[in-house]
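Re: duplicated header lines in exported structure tokens

Our pipeline writes sequence and tokens for each protein into one text file. With two proteins the header for the second block appears twice in some exports. Here is an export where it did not happen, for reference. First protein block:
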Amino acid sequence: MACNSNRCVSSDSKNKRKLPYIEPSIRVIAGFFLSLIGVLLYFFNDLILILIGSLLFISLNLFQSGLTHYCIMEKGLKLFGFRSELDEIKDLSAKAELSASIQKNYIKTLNLLNEAIVEISQDGTILTASDGWSKLISHNTLDPQENANSILSYIHESDKSLVIDMFKKVFNSDESVHRVRFRLKHSHKTEHWIGGKFMLEVLSDSDIRIRGVLRDITDSYLQEKQIKHMAMHDALTGLPNRILLDEKMDLALEGAKKNNSLLGLLFIDLDNFKQVNDIHGHKMGDHLLVSVSRIMQKRLRDHDTLARWGGDEFVVVLPELKHVSDVRRVAESLMGILETELVEEGFDAIVTLSIGGATYPADANSTETLLVQADKALYCAKDQGRNNVQIYTELRESNLGYYDFEMTNRFSQAIKDNRIQVYYQVIVSAKNKETCGFEALARWHDDKYGWVSPGIFIPMAENLGLIQDLGKQVLAKALEDFSSVGGNSDLVLSVNISNRQIMHGDFTGWIENFIKNYDVRPEQIKLEITESLAQMDIKKAKAILESLRETGFKLSLDDFGTGFSSLSNLHNLPVDELKIDMSFVQRCEDADGKIMLETIVAMGHALGLELVAEGVDSPECVTIMQNLGVAKLQGYYFSKPIPWGEVTELFISNHVVTRLSNKA
């Protein structure tokens, strides 16, 4: 029957261990033979020579073995499997030496690995320690009253309780290995991090200790800390990013709910930051962002959170406020200190802030909703001309500039679904009241909000970045309607064009190709622009407008008198027509208002421009405009904006227009 070699060896070794050692066996044999010889000598005198010879043999063999370490009886017993005590001692000594050598090399290897092995009693006393422990505490200075034999004396005060709790777990837990990270004291007051693994070692019932392996993890820990910091903070400003902001907001909201306190949130945008980048370069823009971050951080409390949302936007979390008005107070103080300190730091560019604020619990019950409400308030602050603060609660109570977030979403969807309608308002000749053309006006009807004013959804489109989509959609529908009559008439279609549309790419080439799809000539299209175009790149704007005129398009300056352009810029804009804003036209019967109108009309005539009066709503106004020399009239006196179907029915068949009382 076969057997495992290890088992067989083990069995043989067990059989060998059953035989006695050689030395005591020899003593027993020698004693037996000496006693036997003595008895035989007594009874058998005739054998005396033989017995004495045997006696001499035994005695000489024993004597000789002590001198030469050679014993015939020993050799004979070894043949029968007896063991030698001396050989056993030699084997054990060799094994002990080998074990000691291995242990010594093992300790040397551990020292090469910069690890320390310690054995600790239950009260923290260091019982044994490898050389690595001395290296770990080489920069550790103890106070005279501290116990140098206790490991706790070397541990940072902030981490002692953590290590003590871990020691308790070693004795009381079923886990075999316990891991912990802690700091050692350091004479240079730098962080010295240790990673430790500890296990229970039971030597006897009365000797129970903790064995630990300690490693210096300072470099890896600080790298891990740096990586985590980079993942949670903005690389440029060092402020918390969105990930850490979410955590901070959640903690702040949890605390506000627990303590029944107020929580404020500010959404901040740097006004005209793009212009700073464009004019001074991105390095200056980055420097500005860093300075703004530092200045605002200095104004806030230690437990407030300033985070970079992205680009030129920041978010401030204000926990534990006493009053709702504190949100506005903090926002306005940020605006004030920023303006002052940036000037002191030598920034040439004027940097202002638009800030929207919201509070818990007045405006929201979740961090996500709080951000949304603050963003709405910021949207309103921008719409109010920037460089101001708007608080969501105040907007909601006053309805001033308040846009419902759902309305924004529904408007975006309406753009995507091509549900923006186009209405038309007739433009007539002041001389004979013949129809000259129509102005295409965007209209939006929503199932929930009904008819929404252009004064709301057009700024909304600007802020959402949808103004080009809106303009293209309105232009396409207007051209489609107008193409049914435009080809065989002198009628002109007026379309509003935003500054962003004009300044985007090759606008002239794009619109020229676009209208070809509708069989309409450029001469039949009048593009209405606003005075604010002059505030942009005037050279580029002038070049684009001149190329449009050369292509055949007519150009009209809309809402004249309400913008901020200078007369020199106005003179440089190559337009064909001025549309006098209704705010002036509707004051035509007032003495001061009439003077303003006369001035505008005189200036328009001096520049060789045709004049159109908007907002004409009475026969008296018609007469005044005619007497002033205004060429064309537009307003509710003739017709309110109507769908194309009504336009063809009322005006296209008869170019002469009279007041439509049912449409006024």
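Second protein block, exported in the same file:
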Amino acid sequence: MNLDTEITKWLNIGLNAQFVHKGSDDIKADTGAAKAASPFGDVYEADGSIKVRPWDDNRVANPLLNRSVDDKYYRTQTFNSSVYGKLTLPFGFTWQTTFNVRYGWRKDYYFDSDIKPGVVAGGKAKRVDYSDYEWSIDNMLKWNRTFAKIHNFDFTFVYTAEKYQNWQSTGNNEGFQPNGALSYHGIQAGITPTVSANDEMQTGNGLLWRLNYSLMDRYLLTGSVRRDGFSAFGQNNPFGVFSTVAAGWRMSEEKFLKDVKWINNLKLRLSWGQTGNRDIGRYAAFSRLTITNVIQNGVNYKGVYPSSLANRDLKWETTTGFNLGVDFGLFNNRLSGSVELYKNKTNDLLMDRAMPEISGYGKIASNLGELANQGAELTLSSVNVNTRNVRWGTTFTYSTNKNEIKHLYGDMIDVLDAEGNVIGQREDDDVQNGWYIGHAIDEIYDYKWIGVWQLGEELEAAKYGKQPGDPRLLDVNNDGKINDDDKLWLGTKTPKHRMTLSSDLNLFKCINFSFVLRGEFGWMDIDNLPRNETNRFYNTSNSVWTEYWTPWNPNSKYARLGANIDSPGVNIYEKRNYVRMQNMALSYTFPKKLINKFMIDNLRFSINVDNAFVISKWRTSDPLTKAITPRIWTFGVDITL
């Protein structure tokens, strides 16, 4: 429901409200079991009941077993509402107050049948009841005035406050007697009931001052300062202050470009600014207490102990960025777009730092390190055809990004020369997490697979504990052993380049065809299927087809069956580059002259397909999700009477 009312010339009020109810009782098939399923077997017994082990192999379950014997109930309800009032004041001032509120409820019930292996007799059930509530209020004062017809000032002051709370109750039970026929409805009938609750709350507030100035609508200047507070940070640093300055120059409005007919718009932008990140757990900065059971003299008591350390100095993560951009429109805006260059630096990253075991705590939330980030973005939009009956437009986007760890924890270690003498110091890396100063946060540092040991190389392979058919790693220093000294920088797990091409074609004002083509390039990940190690169970379970080395059919890409992949462990990295047809849509809108006689105002048929195809050398799964991604067809009819 949407409502906007003008009470007087100086007062407007409005209301937006929405209620959504959604639910699904569907239980997904086990795609992992489906991939491992042998083509020889029966999904159902002779009497039509589900077969637990279709291939009589205890390692592979029936992919349809869960959805055939389990029971599920999942419902969500959400109510959103926004109430606002706008007051127009003298001298160019306006005041607007907006109050937003949201209520949410969720019921998530599940029953595991004892027909499934590993489930206790009678089955087990779980009921999760969850509700949350949040509100925010925004008060905005604006002032806009123009002086001498060329100086325009636009001032904005905002004060905002927010609060969020949730309540969750969870009940578990198993071993239902006499059986599990009541599913989760009779959760009290089990023999090992457990209950738990988790209630959370967070609050925040903020102040913003912003001034926009323009001279002749040609020279633009913006400055802002905001102060944000968040309850999850330490008591000493709950607030963060972030500033921004930006300038713009509409070059196309200058006299020296007025006569250049093929330039319709040309704008240069330059900005410097800070943003804050508060993405941490609601109680990450606090010392939390955990309840445990303590048995003394045969009596069970409840004990409480601190399970995490507090950090009173935990503060906002801050990113400082510099941006240079150009917006343009050419040839009567038939070609338009923008170019962006940026360089960011993030300080005081919100991270969990490992604690010494002697402390009794595993980690503590901390502000650590510095991460540099730089990249470029390009957007090009074109109107390729624009006639009375045909309009065709395309948009191409490209982006590239590179990050580098500048600092971590500040722990210094000695730098030694070849004789073991100390010649300096450097900041220590975090080898456990794979973070190395001077490299990207997701850069791969590992041994390099260079093929397979072959016949005739038995003596050389034996030095490394291998034999023909085993994976071969690069011995960088040729010392006859593979250790950390032989690791190399192999690539990155995040795409270096991203591209998107979208097209929209309209014919005769009734036929529309569009598509979105997406690609990501310059990244790698682990594909260990060519290792052919012993845990593949080739004779009983299925997998992606993989060749293998044999003495009579040797190769350098696939190891022998049951290959030795240890001492040290072998990982094979392959490129995850891909091009995907993300979406294709075709629709037909009936001419009004044809449908108006049937008292129909609008009628449109459409067909849409998501994930139409993927082009990639990544063999094992969807290269983006590393899982099975469905192709989704949607047929639609839109009618307005």
